[in-house]
TrEMBL record:
One of its GO terms (biological process) is peptidoglycan catabolic process. SUPFAM superfamilies: Lysozyme-like. This is Transglycosylase SLT domain-containing protein. One of its GO terms (molecular function) is peptidoglycan lytic transglycosylase activity. The lineage of its organism: Bacteria, Bacillati, Bacillota, Bacilli, Bacillales.
Length: 222
């Protein structure tokens, strides 16, 4: 019996050492967890936009949208698709569309112009293209938005207001957004792309409008 007790004691000693070591290690781990300050996690705001919408254009979209009774995110969407917010190397397409919002000359000055046919490039001089009286005569969609006496597709305000005028007349003012986009460019892929960005900018409208307030607040601080 005495021998059995000795054997049991011999067996228990290493077990006790293992248990002690484990409990001591667990205790130290718990202490470290209690006294370690939590690491601050900084969450970066992830933009939902593939290309940032320039804040300087937002007031123009809004003013043009209000004037022609159309949703201003639609103008932002067209601007994004047409010239990537005017960042294209040239503002003239291979087909002859011109300016920030890519108007064919015959659409801008009017299809009643005697040279207008086909895709609408026409034989229109720069003077006629930007002439408010010529646009009125030929039934074009060009608009003199900044009041300088000409309607210029290469002037950002004129171009955006002209696009708003066109989209409004083709149904956007009545809620027929898809129809208006299709009239702007009859490609189904184009319609799909513009709709995508229109819905995206509409969903994140508040985030976009916050961009206008930021520069104003920063200027006030300075």
């Amino acid at each position: 019996m005495k021998k059995l007790n000795i054997i049991i004691i011999i067996i228990m000693i290493p077990i006790a050492i293992i248990v002690y070591t484990f409990l001591f290690s667990l205790f130290r781990t718990i202490q470290e967890a209690i006294h370690t300050e939590p690491t601050e996690v900084i969450e970066e705001e992830v933009s939902p936009f593939d290309i940032p919408v320039p804040s300087e254009y937002l007031p123009i979209y809004m003013a043009a949208g209000k004037k022609y009774n159309i949703p201003w995110p639609l103008l932002a969407a067209h601007h994004r698709i047409e010239t990537r917010f005017s960042t294209m190397e040239t503002l003239v397409s291979p087909a002859g569309a011109q300016g920030h919002m890519q108007f064919m000359p015959c659409t801008f000055v009017g299809w009643k112009h005697p040279s207008c046919e086909g895709l609408g490039e026409g034989d229109i001089s720069k003077e006629e293209l930007t002439s408010v009286s010529a646009i009125a005569q030929y039934g074009g969609y060009g608009v003199d938005a900044n009041g300088d006496g000409i309607a210029d597709p290469y002037h950002i305000e004129d171009a955006i207001y002209s696009a708003a005028n066109y989209l409004s007349r083709f149904g956007a003012a009545d809620g027929e957004i898809e129809r208006a986009i299709h009239e702007y460019n009859k490609s189904e892929a184009y319609v799909k792309d513009v709709l995508h960005f229109y819905e995206l900018y509409t969903t994140h409208k508040d985030q976009l409008l916050a961009q206008i307030k930021k520069p104003a607040a920063q200027a006030k601080e300075e």
